[in-house]
Inverse folding.
């Protein structure tokens, strides 16, 4: 324990100091761990240490051995995390393929309006090739912000004689596209130089802000998160009725059908419809958090929730580059498929993984540590779903603040997962694979950032009581807003990596805030934890829909939506001091019922006394 930093201890053995055992790292290296771990004689049927209710008080990631009866906790943890990861992979599989899909649907600006016939389209007049610094308007446009025409060819060039073929060939590069005012002495001019337009700089699919193509992608993205609002709102009651194993496996079976159906997209309306139907699998997050609550005690549930959700959220970032770099591009370059066929075949891969994971959950997992199926009485309730449960939760101002705040953190993550691939590809004009890699960096930060939020919340709670959790929430939201604003200040006048650095910093605090949020969720209303989890998760999707519809879709300025979105997040941070629990306290106020202060939550699930434990080697 002296060798392990505090933030790694939850992942290894956590035993009283007076017991004889090897550290958790030793257990992992020796493989079985049975020969070097302390066994609680009162609960020795479990691989993990548990409290009096059977919930694990530790989270040793390496302990994957044991039957369903002996190791229900870590089996549930890993398949819970894997199923959530795959759900996000399929949910966001179409996001990095947006330009491929719109090209197949023939709604790109240069497909609808060929530049030769419609040279004055605003999307063309504003276009600049960032890498080569070439412009569609060779000699500039008549208005920087709202152009209606390219400037005329300078008189010296218009009146210059035509150059020979060799000169014309040599003059087809950047030096003729951006002559600007340097036209005083031109001995001859090519045919290209005598035209004000330069359509050769346009990409295969023009899909910039204000085009129909961009609108199709935005509408599909909004549909993809809108359906999850309804799904997440009802999943709390479904979990109480059927339990997490049945709900999660059933959701994956449904997802396998709709994700595979994406390969049949043929028009903008069914592109949006398919993304709407796929969005339902995003409700797997509610199961993820509820299942963790059933398996882990309150002293570790913040970390368990954050790690499971964070590593599950990796699926969104993984999808950004996996679908392009590992599937579409190899299908095109190695197997000779067309662009249209390649992205359609790629959608079958996540669909197949859903089926395999659904079968694994049904055969390998239990709902709770003590039984195959969950019963509502384990929450201290006598009846399952009732509308009154939702009303009871929504009457609590703390729940409403948490819904808003989760919309500001997870909602921002969802919105940017949809926006960033196209943003990097069209605004910074990166290649599709490179744009997907840049956009995926936000999702891949979930490998540690969300878990870091949960671990930090647990640690601050241990040091400062429950107010430590609230301060962790405020700090994460504040710095999320700061770096989102800085992302909105990164224009294409600067290298794209400036935006990437701001994105990484934003992602760290945004995803950590998701972890701190669900460290607070179990304390909002213990009897209604499934409903609270569902409604707060729903808030994330509401935040994503509002951000995409009101900001990223509506505003013509490319960077302004990021800045306004940052203000929305800052307001959420400033609401944090309003949250107060009489038994736990608040951000600036102590608990009014000292006997119930939060040093106790981790003690409420009482463990067997140390004197009753027996250490063995």
């Amino acid at each position: 324990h002296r060798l392990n930093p505090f933030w790694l201890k939850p992942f290894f053995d956590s035993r009283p100091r007076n017991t004889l055992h090897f550290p958790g790292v030793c257990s992992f290296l020796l493989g079985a761990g049975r020969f070097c771990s302390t066994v609680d004689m009162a609960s020795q049927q479990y691989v993990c240490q548990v409290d009096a209710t059977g919930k694990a008080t530790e989270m040793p990631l390496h302990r994957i051995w044991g039957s369903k009866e002996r190791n229900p906790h870590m089996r549930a943890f890993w398949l819970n995390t894997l199923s959530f990861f795959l759900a996000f992979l399929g949910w966001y599989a179409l996001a990095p393929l947006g330009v491929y899909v719109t090209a197949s649907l023939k709604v790109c600006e240069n497909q609808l309006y060929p530049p030769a016939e419609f040279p004055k389209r605003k999307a063309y007049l504003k276009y600049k090739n960032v890498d080569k610094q070439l412009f569609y308007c060779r000699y500039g446009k008549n208005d920087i912000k709202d152009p209606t025409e390219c400037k005329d060819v300078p008189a010296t060039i218009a009146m210059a004689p035509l150059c020979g073929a060799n000169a014309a060939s040599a003059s087809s590069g950047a030096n003729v596209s951006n002559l600007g005012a340097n036209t005083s002495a031109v001995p001859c001019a090519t045919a290209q130089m005598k035209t004000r337009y330069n359509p050769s700089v346009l990409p295969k699919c023009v899909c910039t802000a204000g085009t129909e193509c961009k609108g199709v992608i935005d509408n599909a993205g909004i549909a993809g998160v809108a359906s999850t609002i309804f799904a997440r709102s009802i999943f709390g009651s479904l979990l109480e009725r059927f339990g997490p194993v049945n709900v999660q496996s059933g959701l994956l079976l449904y997802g396998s059908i709709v994700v595979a159906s994406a390969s049949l997209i043929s028009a903008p309306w069914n592109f949006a419809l398919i993304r709407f139907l796929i969005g339902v699998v995003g409700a797997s997050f509610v199961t993820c958090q509820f299942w963790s609550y059933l398996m882990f005690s309150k002293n570790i549930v913040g970390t368990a929730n954050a790690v499971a959700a964070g590593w599950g959220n990796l699926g969104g970032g993984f999808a950004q580059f996996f679908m392009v770099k590992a599937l579409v591009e190899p299908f095109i370059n190695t197997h000779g498929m067309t662009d249209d066929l390649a992205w359609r075949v790629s959608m079958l891969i996540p669909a197949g993984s859903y089926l395999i994971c659904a079968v694994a959950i049904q055969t390998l997992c239990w709902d709770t540590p003590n039984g195959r199926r969950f019963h509502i009485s384990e929450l201290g309730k006598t009846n399952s779903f009732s509308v009154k449960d939702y009303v009871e939760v929504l009457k609590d101002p703390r729940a409403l603040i948490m819904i808003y705040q989760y919309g500001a953190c997870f909602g921002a993550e969802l919105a940017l997962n949809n926006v960033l691939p196209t943003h990097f590809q069209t605004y910074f004009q990166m290649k599709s694979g490179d744009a997907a890699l840049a956009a995926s960096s936000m999702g891949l930060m979930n490998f540690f950032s969300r878990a870091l939020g949960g671990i930090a919340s647990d640690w601050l709670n241990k040091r400062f009581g429950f107010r430590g959790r609230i301060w962790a929430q405020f700090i994460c939201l504040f710095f999320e807003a700061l770096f989102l604003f800085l992302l909105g200040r990164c224009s294409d006048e600067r290298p794209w990596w400036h935006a990437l650095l701001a994105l990484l910093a934003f992602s760290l605090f945004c995803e950590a805030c998701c972890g701190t949020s669900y460290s607070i969720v179990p304390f909002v209303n213990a009897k209604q934890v499934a409903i609270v989890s569902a409604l707060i998760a729903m808030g994330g999707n509401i935040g994503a829909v509002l951000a995409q519809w009101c900001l990223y879709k509506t505003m013509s300025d490319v960077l302004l939506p990021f800045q306004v979105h940052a203000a929305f997040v800052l307001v959420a941070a400033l609401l944090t001091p309003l949250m107060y629990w009489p038994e736990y306290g608040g951000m600036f106020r102590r608990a009014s019922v000292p006997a119930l202060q939060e040093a106790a939550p981790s003690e409420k699930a009482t463990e067997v006394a140390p004197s009753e434990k027996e250490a063995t080697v």
Notes: The two ends are 17 Å apart (CA to CA). The chain has a mean pLDDT of 81.
